[in-house]
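Appendix C: a fully annotated inverse folding record. The material below is reproduced so that readers can follow the format used throughout the book. The structure is listed first as tokens, followed by the designed sequence.
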């Protein structure tokens, strides 16, 4: 069955999510795969690199990793895109009084503040190239100096980084240090975009509507079927964040509690997903109204089994097109040779072909 909000929370609670952070609601294969990997890596101390489009919930996943770890320190967050390039080193390492113009007092850096905890560096691709070797040294040596000081400081901060860009390609094009990329990419986590887990849209939409109604003290009718079909057909380039904004905007206009279709006019001018016969895709209008298919329901928690089902689902959705901007490799966030290698390893092939022959023709 498609999850009710209570069932969705039960799924995310296992991975460290709670009702105040609902962007990981759902029970799709893609989401379950993510939660399974999160379960594996969170108790360790390894560096994690979170890949995902804008609005998919990368900060939420970083918080879950910290919560599920055994670290007694705090979670410290830095958005690399929000800090001027000239100040990022001071932000991370700290500085002494008089280290530069405007340094009126000593400042503790984020690595020091996150000692025995977790440091989350969001939008790591925006870190200036000149600062990257210093970050690499901290990751390798676990030590640094504040600006203006010769005192070496040890740190036990675990690093979790996130990006919505292709760091591997940036490294190949010398837009990001290759050695730092490999140091960050110890355990990659890929957050699926909302368009790749459409079966989660109903539960998310109902949750956002209920949250808005509770917060404002208003009474709202249940979301109608045609309204939900429109939400499910949209491509959601802004992912869960955009869905939340659209639902709340529609709720504001539902003055008598009735949802108005014209509040979704903004979606009509955007792209909608299409099936092979040209019809708009759809999904259940209400949580619990439709069963998941047998293929969509994980039968095993083994990582290879989850990977195989997820890759098969994406291949079917792309009509077994592997390369290109709309192929399975792009949707899975990996390069074409990497996907072909994974297909061979997992024994994935189209009917009446061997895994090797099928991969060779892709």
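Designed amino acids, in order:
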């Amino acid at each position: 069955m498609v999850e009710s909000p209570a069932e969705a929370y039960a799924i995310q609670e296992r991975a460290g999510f709670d009702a105040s952070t609902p962007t990981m609601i759902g029970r799709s294969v893609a989401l379950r795969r993510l939660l399974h990997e999160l379960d594996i890596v969170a108790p360790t101390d390894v560096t994690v690199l979170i890949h995902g489009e804008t609005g998919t919930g990368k900060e939420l996943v970083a918080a879950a990793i910290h919560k599920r770890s055994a670290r007694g320190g705090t979670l410290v967050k830095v958005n690399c895109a929000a800090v001027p390039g000239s100040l990022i080193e001071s932000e991370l390492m700290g500085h002494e009084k008089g280290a530069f113009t405007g340094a009126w007092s000593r400042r503790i850096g984020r690595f020091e503040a996150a000692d025995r905890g977790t440091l989350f560096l969001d939008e790591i691709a925006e870190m200036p190239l000149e600062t990257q070797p210093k970050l690499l040294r901290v990751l390798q040596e676990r030590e640094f100096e504040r600006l203006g000081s010769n005192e070496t400081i040890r740190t036990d901060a675990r690093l979790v980084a996130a990006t919505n860009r292709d760091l591997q390609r940036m490294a190949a094009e010398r837009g990001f240090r290759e050695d730092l990329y490999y140091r960050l990419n110890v355990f990659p986590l890929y957050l699926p975009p909302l368009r790749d887990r459409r079966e989660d849209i109903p539960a998310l939409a109902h949750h956002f509507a209920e949250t808005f109604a509770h917060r404002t003290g208003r009474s709202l009718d249940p979301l109608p079927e045609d309204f939900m079909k429109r939400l499910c057909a949209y491509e959601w380039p802004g992912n869960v964040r955009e869905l939340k904004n659209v639902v709340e905007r529609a709720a504001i206009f539902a003055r008598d509690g009735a949802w108005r279709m014209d509040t979704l006019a903004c979606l009509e001018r955007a792209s909608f997903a299409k099936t092979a016969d040209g019809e708009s895709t759809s999904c259940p209008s209400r949580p619990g109204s439709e069963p998941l298919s047998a293929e969509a329901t994980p039968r095993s928690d083994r990582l290879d089994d989850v990977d195989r089902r997820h890759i098969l689902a994406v291949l079917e959705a792309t009509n077994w097109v592997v390369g290109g901007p709309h192929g399975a490799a792009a949707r899975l966030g990996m390069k074409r040779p990497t996907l072909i290698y994974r297909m061979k390893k997992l024994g994935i092939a189209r009917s009446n072909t061997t895994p090797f022959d099928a991969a060779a023709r892709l």
